[in-house]
Amino acid sequence: MTLKVHRPYVVAESKHGDEKLVWLGLDEADAEKGILANQYLYIAEDKALLIDPGGYFVFQRVYQAVSEFVDPRKVVGIFYSHQDPDVAGSLNLILEFFPRAKVYVSEIWTRFLPHLGVESGVEYEGIPDKGREIIIEGKRLLAIPAHFLHSPGNFNLYIPGLKALFTGDIGAVVFPPGIWYLFVEDFDEHVRYMEWFHKRFMACQRALEAWLSKVKKLDIEVIAPQHGAIFTGENARRFLKWLESLGEVGAELLG
């Protein structure tokens, strides 16, 4: 199938409508200049947090999508799971178009991000290795450690009010040409798109086990990765079980 433009979509919404998680669409006219990535917007009342807003070439589409849901001046935070360019490559534009946003990122990356061409003006809210709370309009979000999966300074974002977990590269796939879907429906079929990525990019079983020990305690109905498709309901639970049975990954596969 040939992809054109996919409109933003509300992935999760609270019963009273005061919280939303929005997937910010897709434009594959030129494959978005690289690997397809998901960007998300968390909305609490009339304030918002951008989650992994992406690289330079997707910024226009992301900005337009955000503007459909909130006034860009109401974006009060940017959450970066890690430092990769497909996550943070638009930082210089972020500062221009979302001037009131604080940047939430691992403390170890606050000295690296200026190399993206940003000399000043960033208000960093460094996330310590153990994680931290992020408060948006009175709503308590949790930055959960996911170190070495795959970045050494890596965080997920849990939204209790939506029972949603943004997992960054955990759960990612690289779809082959002609294949794309937003939600996982056939889990067994989806596994064949996930396995190579997780075997190659997850550092080791110990890192996965440390992460699983944290997230299994959470009430989760939605798992939203940075690449690929979103898991909901039973498929979200199946994904966690699949990771438990994945076996050797990353450095453990070295000869």
CATH class: Alpha Beta
CATH architecture label name: 4-Layer Sandwich
N-end to C-end Cα span: 39 Å
Q: What topology, given as strand order, has the largest sheet? A: 2-3-5-6-7-8-9
The CATH topology annotation reads as Metallo-beta-lactamase, Chain A
**What is the CA-atom radius of gyration, in angstroms?**
17 Å
Q: Total strand count, please?
A: 15
The succession of helices and strands, N to C, reads EEEEEEHEHHEEEEEEHHEEH
> How many structural domains can be distinguished in the coordinates?
1
Mean pLDDT: 92
Query: What coarse outline follows from CA principal-axis ratios?
Result: globular
**How many helices in DSSP terms?**
6
Characterize the structure shown.
The chain has one domain (5-246): Metallo-beta-lactamase, Chain A (4-Layer Sandwich), CATH 3.60.15. Helix content is 23%, strand content 26%. It has helices at 59-69, 85-88, 91-97, 187-201, 205-215, 234-244; strands spanning 5-6, 9-13, 19-23, 26-27, 40-44, 47-51, 75-79, 102-106, 124-127, 132-136, 139-145, 155-159, 164-168, 222-225, 231-232. The strands form 3 sheets. The protein has a 7-stranded mixed β-sheet, with no helix packed on it. A 6-stranded mixed β-sheet has the order 10-11-12-13-14-15, with helices on one face. A two-stranded antiparallel sheet has the order 1-4. Helix 1 (59-69) links the parallel strand 6 and strand 7 (75-79). It is globular, with a radius of gyration of 17 Å.
